[in-house]
């Protein structure tokens, strides 16, 4: 309390522009060196972890006040104020109204129990979702202990060194240290609609207003251009935006606005319209039909439909009894109506989704909205980036080519990619296209001799030095050594190039070091995803000359190159040098050939170029970029290798087995993209077998794809699996093309320009580490580890959640049909007074719905994925959970249960009871009602057991309960391992099993409340009925397996599917001579459907063919990828099963 008061007092005394703990002057009036000194931070390595912890404890989290969080009272009210509970309250009111005190009291107790259990379950679920929302909140890139790390914005403290780039949300008020083309959108704070350009060296008076402090960037503003580094001096409520935090937290009104004319007036009918719509919205929220996810809304509508059916059933009961208004008739009608109410449906759905999102976090996937959980299971195509997603994002410069000098190849000798002192450089005077890199794997000297970097620099007059200058200075990454360890900050591509330059002693920090500044940066033109180039203007202090240094995609750099450095001259930076000759078409082809050689090895190839600036007047960041990037001299190529993640190939293979096509959309050269795509399995390794019409479409550049009209794209035999040199607009067109083919696609993105494609995709996936805040805000889910395998894990989890939702809905509805059928058919049983005798008492109905079945339904929501969940096609969102199979199962199981229950009742009454139905047996127990009460108890026991056993049977909707693991060798005991695996479901069923006995044998409760009596020999009927129940359900599953197997065989026409090679199964439609090439528009092999519909798991045989890039890097980065077969064995062993054959 004292700490809170002290904070409030400090905030009240806070001066605009000051830190949480006041400095000598506001931050905008101090130089950044003074700010760093007063906040005791290092402008290069930032704060230490210990200091961050201390400051977080001292200043508190970087938030704008207390979040609303989860309100217990609101959760409690939601349990009462919903359609299902209101139906039960209505039933309770009717019961009390006709003075049926026991039934009314039981329903009241059930309502109370339902509210209490629902409150704790949903409160826990809401807390889970609240914690997940914090995970998807904006993040900040901070430098601590010399390492750049990403942390939640709430963990930023005063003194933190912050790095921001275009698309980021600034996490705190920061004093800028370095700004490159840096502009921010401050409309939220100042109302200024135009971005504001920032300057790090400017100083302002203490009383300067927030809008004029050009050396400060404000919390919650967005970076619209460039990049910057700065020191956080104010966090939380001490920021400028903290002063207006109350306005930011205002809630949106739920009252519909009144439509007014141009004069601002509205007639009475407009007010009536607004009030009517507002009332309709309120009723819709109460009923749940206009809030929540699409599935939640659909289930709320289903509940309303079932309520209508319940009313019809009640009318039927009254009609069958000639509208007799006696108490027992009305109670019978109420019981029949209650039998159709799925009371726990929406609650179980919410809990299942919350548990699913929590499980996804464990698999490095953060769900930003619940609707994406439903969409994930329907994904048919994944459009993924390459760098950092399919690959490790840890680039290493493996080769370089400088015209007139030769080829430089780097052999790594350690696992320290940032250490420029590790590794050896091989030099060969030949061009890359003249070197046999395949032979270099076994004969190292085939790629040149090992030569020290110093000797290479001495041997070159200027070409190598000029090349290294561009590599080091057209580069914003930082590579430095601290306490004997090498660290790096920046983009992986630029870090790799900076390390390469540092091998020759050409580190950017050394070239621009204070006290010995050889080069000074004048202006920077950041990398643009549309033009794919990055340039800087630098000044050589020794000569006073200005140079433009450029790097980027080879084709894009060649477009602005007019000269070619053909020999190692003395002044190759100048086009006047004899070694620099005009660029010709032959020279361009020479460059392209060498680039394709590098790219064919799986290397990402960039071109480096430069020119001497003649007119240096008014050169700044405002200079027209086109004036800078022109008339350049080509200096050379550098090839970077980004090894695929070990888990990428198995993940892609798993997608293919699941009927999901994987597309790679990358900014790399087509040959580089093709090599990596083959390595991870996106493209077939047997590319020579691909039919000619498909080969031209399977790999395309963005230029080729964008040149096609929508009609031409739709006429392609297949959509491209690889699009190289991809621009953000290309991603949008790809999504549209997929949608026109009826596909449901997921798209990855990380940059600001990816936002349109992320929003257009059915599931937008942002990168948690490399992604901008703008991209995250536009996405549906965020990958915490930027890993493609996490996308596959998310899809698997989405399918599991979808399956489990389908299972518990089927369980609930099948029970409702069974109970309704038993009661409606039971209308035929008339006693001596011609009133219907119900086979199930009202309290029994409520007990089964709320007590017996409620917990098993939740247990089904927690069930793990079935073994073949990723070996079947994606489900359709058009049908959702209510597939044809679902609807037929619901009817079959419901009718089968009702037949067995009615048979038990009839046998006890007519076969062994003489047909004695007594009199007034719906109200009280008497000797004449002995038979009816025993028959009713028998029926109740049967229905209870069937409801519990049906939950176990629905763990897998097709496989036998006794054989859910087809590869298991435990033929007689595997079922026990399966039921024990989900212990929540196990104990829920055991609990339901044992709660049956008190209701049967405790005096008063059995006769007065449940309207039945204890049974003895009738247990024989129950056991026989249970056996028949299992037999019927197993027979139905067996028939389904036979049916779907035959349907799959007819559809695919493949009898030896198991004997086919995986690549033949997946890419069979693409190969020349394929009989099914006409169906290749689906981008997936029809054989996947065959496998899945059979409901069988199939072992995989991963291909062993190695690509050239694997061969080149074998001695350096040997990675072993576990096959799916090994994964399946582990999963099977964990489930208590033996490995599959």
Automatic annotation (TrEMBL):
Location of region: Disordered: 1-25, 1073-1141
Compositionally biased intervals (Polar residues): 1094-1124, 1132-1141
Chief place where the protein resides: membrane
Ranges of Low complexity composition bias in the record: 1073-1093
Domain of life per record: Eukaryota
Subcellular localization, as worded in the UniProt entry: Cell membrane
Record keywords: ATP-binding, Cell membrane, Ion transport, Magnesium, Membrane, Metal-binding, Nucleotide-binding, Potassium, Potassium transport, Sodium, Sodium transport, Transmembrane, Transmembrane helix, Transport
Domain Cation-transporting P-type ATPase N-terminal span(s) in chain numbering: 26-100
EC number assigned by the record: 7.2.2.3
Pfam families: Cation_ATPase, Cation_ATPase_C, Cation_ATPase_N, E1-E2_ATPase
Catalytic activity annotation: Na(+)(in) + ATP + H2O = Na(+)(out) + ADP + phosphate + H(+); K(+)(in) + ATP + H2O = K(+)(out) + ADP + phosphate + H(+)
Main enzyme class: translocase
Cofactor: Mg(2+)
Segments crossing the lipid bilayer: 75-98, 104-123, 302-323, 329-354, 808-829, 845-866, 886-913, 933-955, 984-1005, 1017-1036
Family matches, as InterPro entries: ATPase_P-typ_cation-transptr_C, ATPase_P-typ_cation-transptr_N, ATPase_P-typ_cyto_dom_N, ATPase_P-typ_P_site, ATPase_P-typ_TM_dom_sf, ATPase_P-typ_transduc_dom_A_sf, ATPase_P-type_domA, HAD-like_sf
Gene3D superfamilies referenced in this protein's UniProt entry, alphabetically: Calcium-transporting ATPase, cytoplasmic domain N, Calcium-transporting ATPase, cytoplasmic transduction domain A, Calcium-transporting ATPase, transmembrane domain
Membrane topology of this protein: Multi-pass membrane protein
Family, as annotated: Belongs to the cation transport ATPase (P-type) (TC 3.A.3) family. Type IID subfamily.
PANTHER family assigned: CALCIUM-TRANSPORTING ATPASE (PTHR42861)
Protein name per its UniProtKB record: P-type Na(+) transporter
Origin species: Remersonia thermophila
């Amino acid at each position: 309390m004292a700490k809170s008061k002290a904070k409030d007092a400090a905030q009240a005394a806070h001066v605009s522009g000051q830190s949480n703990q006041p400095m000598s002057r506001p931050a905008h009036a101090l130089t950044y060196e003074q700010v760093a000194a007063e906040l005791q931070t290092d402008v290069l390595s930032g704060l230490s972890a210990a200091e961050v912890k201390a400051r977080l404890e001292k200043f508190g989290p970087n938030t704008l006040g207390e979040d609303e969080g989860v309100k217990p009272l609101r959760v409690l009210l939601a349990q009462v104020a919903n359609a299902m509970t209101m139906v039960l309250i209505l039933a309770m009111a009717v019961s009390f109204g006709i003075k049926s005190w026991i039934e009314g009291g039981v329903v009241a107790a059930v309502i109370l129990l339902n509210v209490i259990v629902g409150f704790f379950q949903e409160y826990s679920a809401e807390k889970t979702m609240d914690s997940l929302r914090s995970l998807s909140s904006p993040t900040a890139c901070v430098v601590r202990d010399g390492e750049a790390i990403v942390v939640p914005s709430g963990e930023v403290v005063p003194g933190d060194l912050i790095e921001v780039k275009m698309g980021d949300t600034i996490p705190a008020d920061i004093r800028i240290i370095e700004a490159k083309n840096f502009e921010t959108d401050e409309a939220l704070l100042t109302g200024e609609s135009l971005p504001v350009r920032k300057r790090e060296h400017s100083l302002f008076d203490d009383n300067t207003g927030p809008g004029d402090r050009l050396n400060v960037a404000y919390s919650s503003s967005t970076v619209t251009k460039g990049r910057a580094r700065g020191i956080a001096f104010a966090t939380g409520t001490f920021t400028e935006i903290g002063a207006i935090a109350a306005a930011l937290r205002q809630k949106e009104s739920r009252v519909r606005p009144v439509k007014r004319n141009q004069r601002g007036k509205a007639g009475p009918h407009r007010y009536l319209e607004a009030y009517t719509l507002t009332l309709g919205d309120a009723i819709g929220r109460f009923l749940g039909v206009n809030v929540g996810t699409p599935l939640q809304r659909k289930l709320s509508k289903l509940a309303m439909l079932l309520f209508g059916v319940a009313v019809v059933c009640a009318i039927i009961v009254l009609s069958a009894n000639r509208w007799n208004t006696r108490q027992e008739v009305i109670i019978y009608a109420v019981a029949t109506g209650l039998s159709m109410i799925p009371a726990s449906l929406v609650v179980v759905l919410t809990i299942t989704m919350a548990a699913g999102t929590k499980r996804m976090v464990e698999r490095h996937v953060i769900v930003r909205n619940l609707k994406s959980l439903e969409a994930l299971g329907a994904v048919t195509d994944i459009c993924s980036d390459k760098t950092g997603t399919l690959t490790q994002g840890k680039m290493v410069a493996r080769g370089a080519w400088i015209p007139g000098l030769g080829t430089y190849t780097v052999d790594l000798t350690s696992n320290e990619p940032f250490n420029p002192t590790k590794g050896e450089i091989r030099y060969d005077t030949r061009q890359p296209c003249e070197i046999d890199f395949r032979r270099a794997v076994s004969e190292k000297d085939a790629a040149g001799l090992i030569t020290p970097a110093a000797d290479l620099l001495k041997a070159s007059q200027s070409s190598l030095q000029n090349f290294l200058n561009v590599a080091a200075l057209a580069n914003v990454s930082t590579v430095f050594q601290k306490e004997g360890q090498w660290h790096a900050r920046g983009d992986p591509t630029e870090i790799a190039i900076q390390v390469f330059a540092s091998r020759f002693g050409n580190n950017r920090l050394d070239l621009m070091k204070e006290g010995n500044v050889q080069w000074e940066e004048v202006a920077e033109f950041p990398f643009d995803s549309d033009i794919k180039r990055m340039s800087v203007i630098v000044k050589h202090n020794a000569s006073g000359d200005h140079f433009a240094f450029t790097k980027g995609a080879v084709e894009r750099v060649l477009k602005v190159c007019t000269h070619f450095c053909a020999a190692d001259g003395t002044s190759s930076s100048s086009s006047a040098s004899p070694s620099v000759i005009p660029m010709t078409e032959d020279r361009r082809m020479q460059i392209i050939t060498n680039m394709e050689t590098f790219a064919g090895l799986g290397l990402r190839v960039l071109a480096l170029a430069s020119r001497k600036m003649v007119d240096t007047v008014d050169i700044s960041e405002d200079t027209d970029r086109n004036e800078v990037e022109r008339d350049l001299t080509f200096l050379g190529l550098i090839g970077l290798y980004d090894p695929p993640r070990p888990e990428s190939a198995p993940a892609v293979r798993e997608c293919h087995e699941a009927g999901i096509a994987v597309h790679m959309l990358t900014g790399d050269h087509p040959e580089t993209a093709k090599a990596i795509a083959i390595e991870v399995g996106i493209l077939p390794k047997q590319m020579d077998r691909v039919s000619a019409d498909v080969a031209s479409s399977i790999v395309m550049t963005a230029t080729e794809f964008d040149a096609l009209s929508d009609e031409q794209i739709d006429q392609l035999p297949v959509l491209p699996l690889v699009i190289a040199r991809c621009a953000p607009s290309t991603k949008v067109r790809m999504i549209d093309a997929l949608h026109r083919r009826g596909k449901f696609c997921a798209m990855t993105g990380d940059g600001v320009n990816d936002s349109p494609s992320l929003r257009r995709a059915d599931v937008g996936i942002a990168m948690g580490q490399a992604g901008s805040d703008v991209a995250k805000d536009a996405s549906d889910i965020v990958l915490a580890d930027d890993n493609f395998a996490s996308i596959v894990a998310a899809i698997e989890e989405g399918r599991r959640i979808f399956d489990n939702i389908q299972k518990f809905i089927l369980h609930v509805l099948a029970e409702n049909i069974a109970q309704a059928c038993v009661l409606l058919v039971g209308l035929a049983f008339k006693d001596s007074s011609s009133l219907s005798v119900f086979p199930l008492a009202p309290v029994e109905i409520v007990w089964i719905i709320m007590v017996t079945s409620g917990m098993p339904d939740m247990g089904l929501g927690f069930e793990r994925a079935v073994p073949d969940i990723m070996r079947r096609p994606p489900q359709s969102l058009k049908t959702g959970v209510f597939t044809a199979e679902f609807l037929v199962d619901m009817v079959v199981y419901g009718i089968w249960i009702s037949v067995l229950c009615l048979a038990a009742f009839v046998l006890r009454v007519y076969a062994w009871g003489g047909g004695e139905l007594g009199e007034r047996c719906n109200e009280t127990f008497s000797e004449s009602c002995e038979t009816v009460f025993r028959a009713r108890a028998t029926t109740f026991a049967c229905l209870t057991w069937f409801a519990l056993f049906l939950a176990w049977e629905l763990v897998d909707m097709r496989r036998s309960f006794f054989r859910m693991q087809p590869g298991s060798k435990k033929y007689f005991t595997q079922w026990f391992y399966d039921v024990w695996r989900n212990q929540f479901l196990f104990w829920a069923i055991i609990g339901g099993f044992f709660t049956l006995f008190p209701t049967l044998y405790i005096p008063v409760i059995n006769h007065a409340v449940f309207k039945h009596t204890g049974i003895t020999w009738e247990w024989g009927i129950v056991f026989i009925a249970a056996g028949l129940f299992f037999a019927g359900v197993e027979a139905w599953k067996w028939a389904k397996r036979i049916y779907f197997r035959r349907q799959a065989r007819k559809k695919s026409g493949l009898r030896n599917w198991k004997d086919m090679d995986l690549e033949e199964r997946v890419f069979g439609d693409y190969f020349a001579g394929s009989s099914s090439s006409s169906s290749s528009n689906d981008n997936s092999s029809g054989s996947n459907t065959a496998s899945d519909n059979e409901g069988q798991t199939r072992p995989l045989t991963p291909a062993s063919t190695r690509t050239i890039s694997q061969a080149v890097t074998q001695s350096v980065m040997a990675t072993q990828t576990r096959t799916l077969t090994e994964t399946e064995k582990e999963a099977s062993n964990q489930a208590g099963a033996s490995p599959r054959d």
